[in-house]
Amino acid sequence: MIPLLHDFTGTRVLVFGGGRVGARRARTFDREADVVVVSPTFVEESFGSAARVRAAPEPAAVGDWIDRVDPAVIVAATDRTALNDAIATAGHDRGVLVNRADQAAGADRTVSDVAVPATVWSEPVVVGISTGGRSPALTRVLRERIEPHIEDAGEMARVTGSLRAALNDVSPEQRRSALRAVVRSDRVWKALGDSHTNTEQAVSEVIASELGETE
Ligand SMILES: C[C@@]1(CC(=O)O)c2cc3[nH]c(cc4nc(cc5[nH]c(cc(n2)[C@H]1CCC(=O)O)[C@@](C)(CC(=O)O)[C@@H]5CCC(=O)O)C(CC(=O)O)=C4CCC(=O)O)c(CCC(=O)O)c3CC(=O)O
Ligand SMILES: NC(=O)C1=CN([C@@H]2O[C@H](COP(=O)(O)OP(=O)(O)OC[C@H]3O[C@@H](n4cnc5c(N)ncnc54)[C@H](O)[C@@H]3O)[C@@H](O)[C@H]2O)C=CC1
C-alpha cells in the first residue's frame, strides 16, 4: 500500500460503531471533516466534535445512511463482521473510500479500501506509520519512538518555508544549498528546541557561511 495525503476539509465522514475504535477514527477525521457516528451505544471517550446518532442499522439499511450523509469516507468500526461486510460493499458500490477497522483488508481489497496509519503531527509536518496491517502493536511503538524526533519539524518547516520566499535575490543553486544547510544544521535544530536561543540569528549565520563558501 502506498501512502497518499487527502485534504478532507469541507467533506463528511460517516463512522459506523461507537466503540473505542469508532471514537479514535472520529477524532482522527475531526481535524478536517464533519464527522457523523452512527451506533446504538457510545463509549465514555471523546468523539471530538462529531455528531453522534443513536441507531442500529441492519445491513440492508446501510446504503440509505450513506446516501443521506454523502460522505467522502466510511468507517466500518462495528463489532459485527456481517455488518462491516455490508458497509464495505455499499461503500464500494458508491465509489466511496472505505476503512475497515476489523481487518487488514485481504485479497479482495480494492483501490477504495484505505487503511488508517498511526500519525505523528507537528503541523504542518505529518508522519504516517503502517505495518501493512501486520502488526498494529508495532505501529504504536514506532509512533512513540518517532514522536520526539518530529517535535520541532513543524517549526523548521515554517522557518525554511519563509526562507524559500525570502531568498529571492540569489541563484536557484545558492537557494538550494542554503536551504539544505539550514535543515541539516544541528545548531538550528537546537535553537528551535530552546526558547532562549535566537533561531533567526542561527539561521542567518548558517546561510551566511554557506553562501559565503559557494560564492
Ligand atoms: C488494518 C488496521 C485498520 C485500518 O486500516 O484502519 C488495523 C486493524 C486491527 N488492529 C487491531 C488491533 C490493535 N490495533 C491497535 C492500534 C492501532 N491500530 C491502528 C491501525 C490499524 N489497525 C490498521 C493497520 C495499521 C498498520 O498497518 O499497521 C492504529 C495505527 C490507528 C488507529 O486504529 O487509530 C492504532 C495505533 C494508534 C497509536 O497508538 O498510534 C493495537 C495496539 C494498542 O491498542 O495498543 C491493537 C492490539 C495489538 C495488536 O493486535 O497488534 C486488530 C485486531 C483486533 C482484534 O484482535 O480483535 C485489527 C484487525 C485485524 O488486523 O484483523
Ligand atoms: N483498528 C484497530 O485499531 C482495532 C480494531 N479492532 C476491530 O474493530 C472492531 C471495533 O473495535 P472496538 O471499537 O474496540 O469494539 P466495541 O465492541 O467497543 O465497539 C463496537 C461498536 O459497534 C456498535 N454497533 C453494534 N451494532 C451496530 C449497528 N448495527 N450499527 C452501528 N454500530 C453498531 C456497538 O454499539 C459498539 O459501540 C472490533 O470488532 C475489532 O474487530 C479492535 C481493536 C483495535
TrEMBL record:
Gene3D superfamilies: NAD(P)-binding Rossmann-like Domain (3.40.50.720), Siroheme synthase, domain 2 (3.30.160.110)
Pathway terms, separated by semicolons: Porphyrin-containing compound metabolism; siroheme biosynthesis; sirohydrochlorin from precorrin-2: step 1/1
Keywords of this entry: NAD, Oxidoreductase, Porphyrin biosynthesis
Catalytic activity: precorrin-2 + NAD(+) = sirohydrochlorin + NADH + 2 H(+)
Gene Ontology molecular function, alphabetical: ferrochelatase activity; precorrin-2 dehydrogenase activity
Biological process terms in GO annotation: siroheme biosynthetic process
Siroheme synthase central domain segment(s): 127-147
Source domain of life: Archaea
EC number of the protein: 1.3.1.76
Database matches in InterPro entries: Met8-like, NAD(P)-bd_dom_sf, Sirohaem_synthase_central, Sirohaem_synthase_N
Protein name, entry field: precorrin-2 dehydrogenase
